Amino acid sequence: MSEERREPYLPPGYRVILSDPEVVQLVAPWGDVIFTWSRWGAAPRKVESLAWDHHRRTRKSAMGKER
After folding, report:
1. Which site in 6, 20, 50, 61 is 20 to 30 Å from 37, CA atoms measured?
2. Residue 63 confidence (pLDDT) above 90
3. Quick one: pLDDT at residue 22?
4. What is the pTM of this model?
5. Is 31 helix (H, G, I), strand (E, B) or coil?
6. How far apart are alpha carbons 39 and 62 in whole angstroms?
7. Which residue has the higher pLDDT, 12 or 59?
8. Neighbouring-strand partners of residue 17
9. What distance in Å separates the CA atoms of residue 47 and residue 60, rounded to the nearest whole number?
10. 62 in helix, strand or coil?
């Protein structure tokens, strides 16, 4: 399978929605759409990178609030 056709490896709870043939949406575990792309611009590595960056930022933010 080529790089562009594989499923992205996402953090726990994150998912990709392909409900529109032209649009890809990345959804956080709590249901917010956090990124939207043209289907042609959503390479799996880019989707993964943005999801993991978001995951790290939100975890750091949540950890800071717990203190």
Report:
1. 61
2. no
3. 92
4. 0.77
5. coil
6. 31
7. 12
8. 25
9. 20
10. helix
Take residue 59 and report the two structure tokens written for it: 């975890």
Q: Which amino acid is at 33?
A: V
Coil, helix or strand for 33? strand
Neighbour-count burial for 49-61, b at 16+ CB within 10 Å, e otherwise: ebbeebbeeeeee
Structure tokens at 10: 């996402």
- Using the structure block, give the residue that is written with the tokens 């203190």: 67
- The 10s digit of each residue's pLDDT in 5-27 is 678 899 999 999 988 889 999 99
The pLDDT value given to residue 5: 62
Under 8 Å between Cβ of 8 and 48: yes
Return the structure tokens found at 45.
């590595």
In whole angstroms, what is the distance from residue 40 CA to residue 31 CA?
Answer: 23
